Amino acid sequence: MRFLKPIVLLAISCYGQSLEDLPQMADNSTNTPVPASSEASKYVLPPLPYSYDALEPHISTQIMELHHKRHHQAYVNNLNSALDELQKLRGQANPDDTDLNWSRVFELEETVKFNKGGHINHSLFWKGLTPAGTPESTPQGELEKAIITHWGSIEAFKTTFYKSILQQVKGSGWGWLVCNIHTNKLAVATSKDQEAILAPDKPILGIDMWEHAYYLQYYNNKIAYLEAIWNVLNWKEANERYILCLPHSFK
Ligand SMILES: *[C@@H]1O[C@H](CO)[C@@H](O)[C@H](O)[C@H]1NC(C)=O
Ligand SMILES: *[C@@H]1O[C@H](CO)[C@@H](O)[C@H](O)[C@H]1NC(C)=O
Ligand SMILES: *[C@@H]1O[C@H](CO)[C@@H](O)[C@H](O)[C@H]1NC(C)=O
Ligand SMILES: [Fe+2]
Questions:
Q1: Which atom of ligand 1 is nearest to 28's Cα?
Q2: Is 234 in the pocket of ligand 3 (CB under 6 A)?
Q3: In this model, does residue 128 exceed pLDDT 50?
Q4: pTM, 2 dp
Q5: Number of neighbouring beta carbons within 10 Å of residue 8
Q6: Ligand 1 centroid to residue 42 C-alpha, Å
């Protein structure tokens, strides 16, 4: 079974989301000193970059609080405890790995993948929103130009983007504007379940289409939610992500 180990490690480390946006690991988020040998780094819930009521009336305070403090926190907690258990399992295993419970390891890997995905997605999502009427909340910069070149107008892009979200995201999922780092082309993408946005695509704008993101305010009226969230998209942030996708920013 020894040959399986690299696959396990790879699966955990290769989630295909925008990695420079990964919220930082904090090893001193509590006052408890962490022994250096335990590698007990924890993911932490990043604070919102605005107050819970900042997106009113478009996204209600109640939704923001539940979404951030309950849903996002749960992804973080589940991620940390699955990582802890994996580390314990591996620590107990013999060098030949024959006594490792591989079905538990694979189960935990799925848990890590799902919750890390949720953590990354939501961290991107919060940063991708801003109070309505701020300078950030209107299309701008290179991204605005590229959208107009590609779709003809911002309005035409919005129509295409929302149409594919409404047609393609049936249950829980996300709507994305992505940029291909090789061709620098923009495209609309949707995802459901566990399918990630994979390289070479990088997320520029992301809209959470899970019911917890809108149901308490908009019930099953997804169009009303999409119309509302349009007012609070952070186009400055989106433009910065787009610029990082352009060739001159390769390192
Ligand atoms: C740890 O704490 C120090 C001092 O409070 C802070 O400057 C640093 O950013 C913290 N590190 C992390 C990873 O949170
Ligand atoms: C191994 O993991 C599986 C899946 O979680 C569990 O059902 C089983 O009881 C575990 N076996 C042992 C020996 O702990
Ligand atoms: C995270 O986003 C990916 C798309 O990049 C999606 O497929 C996945 O379902 C999302 N995970 C969660 C838990 O929202
Ligand atoms: Fe969500």
A1: 1
A2: no
A3: yes
A4: 0.79
A5: 18
A6: 13
